[in-house]
Amino acid sequence: MLLVFRSTSSSECAFCSALINCITVSRNMYLSYSE
Known about the structure:
The chain is mainly alpha-helical. It has helices spanning 3-6, 10-34. The longest helix has 25 residues, at 10-34.
């Protein structure tokens, strides 16, 4: 799935990486609060 982003421009790649990073951090924070 992530390999598809490699063929796009570097700016889109950076945007996708930042977006995935944000979602991962949000999930981690949500999981820590629910415990």
